[in-house]
Amino acid sequence: MKFKQTKYYHAAWDKHLDSILEFGLRPGPDGCVYMAGPEPAHAAQFLALRGGPTNWELNEEGKMWPVQEKADKIYVFTIYIDDLDMDKLHESFDHNANFFPPETEAVYYDDAIPPECCNLEWEFDLNSA
């Protein structure tokens, strides 16, 4: 696939900032790192739709249960595709396109992205009016 963008964005909750700066972007349970573009806000929209950071706790029955936490900021990292293995970058179809602006592009990467390729460039304060 020929990608339209030269860079994509990955949004993260403030509680994950230190880990990303130290270790980079690590794949989630499905083995992927998700990104969007062409604007940083596109990645932030994907993250915000998930409803806040989740912490897993044991409930009364001894089962793991998701608990939403409060977040104060969303950080957005710029990822340049020239820094990636193009064989591991794919278009993503994991969302309903009707929820996003028509120009939104979603992609996923089949590996970790090292910290030197994660350029922190945007910060969205969720407490500002």
Question: What descriptive keywords fit this protein?
Answer:
129 residues, mainly beta, three-stranded antiparallel β-sheet, 2 helices
Radius of gyration: 15 Å
Low-confidence spans: none
Strand content: 25-35%
The biggest sheet, with number of strands, parallel, antiparallel or mixed sense and barrel status, is: 3 strands, antiparallel
SSE order, one letter for each helix or strand: EHEHEEEEEE
E-strand count: 8
Strand order of the largest sheet: 1-5-8
Task: Measure the end-to-end span.
Answer: 40 Å
Helix content: 10-25%
Class computed from helices, strands and strand pairing: mainly beta
* Overall pLDDT score: 87
Shape: globular
Number of DSSP helices? Answer: 2
Compact overview of the structure:
The protein is mostly beta strands and 129 residues long.
Question: Topology of this structure?
Answer:
Blueprint: E1 7-13, H1 17-23, E2 33-37, H2 40-49, E3 54-58, E4 64-68, E5 73-80, E6 89-91, E7 105-109, E8 119-125
Question: Would you write up a description of this structure?
Answer:
Strand 3 and strand 4 form a beta hairpin. The protein is mostly beta strands and 129 residues long. The protein is globular and about 50 Å long. The chain contains 2 helices and 8 strands.
